[in-house]
User: Fold this.
Amino acid sequence: MSGVCLTGDVHSLRLANAEQAYLPTETTELDIASRYAKIAADHDVAVTFFVTGLAARDQPNLVSTIDSNSSVEVGGHT
Assistant:
C-alpha cells in the first residue's frame, strides 16, 4: 500500500437527486463507491468508506462486494 488513505461518506441517495447529469439516474453513491474502490485498488491506495445504514440496507450485496476488496475498509456512518 502507498502512504495514502482516502475516506468517503456513502449515503443512500441516488445521484439523480444530486443533479449529476452525466450519470444514469439509477446510479447510487454505493455504485460510485464500488467504482472508486476498484480504481484505488488498481493504484494500491487504501480507502475507508463510511456507509449509512440505509445504504447498506438498500444494497447489502454491493456493500459486501466493496468490503471484500482488500484495500477497502467499511465503517458505519450515522
Remarks:
- The chain has a mean pLDDT of 83.
- DSSP finds three helices and three strands in the chain.
- The radius of gyration is 12 Å.
